[in-house]
Design goal:
This protein starts with a helix and ends in a 30-residue tail after the last helix. α7 links the parallel β2 and β3. It has 2 domains: about 45 residues, no CATH class; about 210 residues, Rossmann fold. Strands 4-3-2-1-5-6-7 form a 7-stranded parallel sheet, with helices on both faces. The longest helix has 19 residues. Helices cover about 40% and strands about 10% of the residues. α6 packs parallel to α7 and α6 crosses α12. By secondary structure, the chain is of the alpha/beta class. It is built from 12 helices and 7 strands.
């Protein structure tokens, strides 16, 4: 079109708007078809080739989604996908088992594996026997092996559903075989995994473990100490002799690092039956909760919602 105007029409005359040919120029162009502009259909076909390059939708572009710029999307996905899964599976709450992945049933501390398995079995059997109107809290673990496997295995022994929140690591860990398939989740970000441990937990049982277990235990105790959790969280340190050997809780009080009252944030147990009794007492207030309320951040009045009330604003 521009070529036609340059050749056929030329520069505008005085008093003539640019690009507006006069009648004589139009007559001249009609006598010379080669100077006429191409039809509109031709211009459209030239501007839209037969096989145009089509780019994928942004959220289907794996290269972009895996990039640094899209990190916030990946973080959000590790919140929304578990939320969707727990809603879909109608999970009212959990009892979380923390503990070392290195403990084996036939190892030097194998009794803790056996105790974790038995406690998870006893709790799941008790929970499954509650009235139909009562919420059935599920055993939840970090999804790996050792104590985590023992917890999921014990719940499976009692024919109960059980949750595994596995973390992707370079050389370890793989999900154990005892997690309910629909409730097996994989995380990349430790902090999102820890959020879901706390979000649904009604009680936590901490078996012997190393840095990871200490980190998880400290996170829960800090949230409880700073009152970021609605209601009292039942925290049981399993294996009193182990925990008193590796942590001098009284020394923390002596040196003013914690208050004496903070020692009431947790209790000890050394047998599955003792731990089960403590779990029953600690969870009993939640058994009177109303139906799941997935859209509330805090309960109103005496109502206890299931999903969001655990974490602060």
């Amino acid at each position: 079109m521009g070529q036609f105007r340059k050749a056929a029409i030329g520069a505008p005359r005085k008093g003539q708007a640019a690009g507006n040919p006069d009648k004589s120029e139009i007559r001249h162009a009609r006598k010379n078809p080669a100077m006429m502009p191409p039809p509109t259909e031709q211009l459209m076909s030239e501007a839209n080739p037969t096989n145009p390059v089509r780019h994928s939708l942004a959220y289907k572009n794996e290269k972009f989604v895996d990039s640094d710029d899209a990190r916030v999307l990946r973080i959000l996905a590790e919140y929304l996908e578990p939320l969707h899964r727990f809603q879909e599976q109608k999970v009212p709450g959990t009892v979380v088992f923390f503990g070392s992945a290195r403990l084996a049933a036939d190892g030097p501390m194998g009794r803790y594996y056996a105790d974790a398995r038995e406690l998870a079995r006893l709790f799941t059997t008790w929970s499954n026997g509650l009235p139909p109107s009562a919420p059935r809290f599920l055993v939840c673990s970090g999804g790996g092996h050792g104590i985590m496997e023992a917890a999921n295995r014990g719940a499976a022994d009692a024919k109960g559903r059980t949750i595994g929140l596995n973390i992707s690591l370079p050389e370890e860990q793989t999900a154990n075989a005892f997690i309910t398939p629909e409730l097996s989740l994989e995380f990349h970000y430790f902090f999102m995994r820890k959020l879901w441990f706390a979000h649904l937990a009604r009680a936590v049982v901490v078996f012997p473990g190393g840095f990871g277990t200490l980190d998880e235990m400290s996170e829960i105790l800090t949230l409880s100490q700073t009152r970021k959790l609605e209601g009292k969280m039942t925290v049981i340190l399993y294996g009193e002799s182990y925990w008193r050997e590796i942590i001098n809780f009284e020394a923390l009080v002596k040196h003013g690092m914690i208050n004496a009252g903070d020692l009431e944030l947790f209790s000890f147990a050394s047998t599955p039956t003792d731990a089960l009794d403590q779990l029953k007492r600690g969870i009993s207030p939640w058994l009177e909760a109303a139906a799941p309320a997935y859209t509330k951040t805090r309960p109103t009045g005496r109502e206890l919602s299931y999903l969001y009330q655990r974490s602060g604003d």
